[in-house]
Amino acid sequence: MVFQWFHSTAYMMDDEVGSLVEKLKPQFVTKWLKTVCDVRFDVMVMCLLPKPMEFARVGGYWDKSCSTVTQLKEGLNRILCLIPYNVISQSVWECIMPEWLEAIRTEVPDNQLKEFREVLRWVSSLM
Hints:
InterPro entries: UNC79
Oligomer: single chain
Pfam family, one: UNC-79
Shape: globular
Order of helices and strands: HHHHHH
Number of strands: 0
C-alpha cells in the first residue's frame, strides 16, 4: 500500500499540502522502505512484481476490476514514481525488470504495445 501511496501522491497539486507530503517522503518513508528492503528483500521484490502474491495486491488498480494491460501500465507507473526517491535499488531493479518485460511481452496484445512505448524507452535508458 505504501507503493500505491507514492504513486497517488506523485500527482498532487503543488500547494501547501502537496509540499508537506513531498517532504515526508524522503524524511521518513523512503528511509523506512530502505530498511524493509534490507531486512526483507524478498518481500520488497515480491510486492513490486507484475503479478505479486495475493497479500501484496492492495490498493489502487488491485481494488477495482480492470484489464491485465491496465494493471501492467499502472504497476509500471507505480515503480517509476519510486525511482526519484531511490527506493528501487539496483538489486531490486535486476530482480523485477525481467519479470516486467516478460509480462509485457506475453500479456500485452501487439495493438496495445504502443501504450508502453514511452515507458519502455525510459526503462531501457536505465538498463
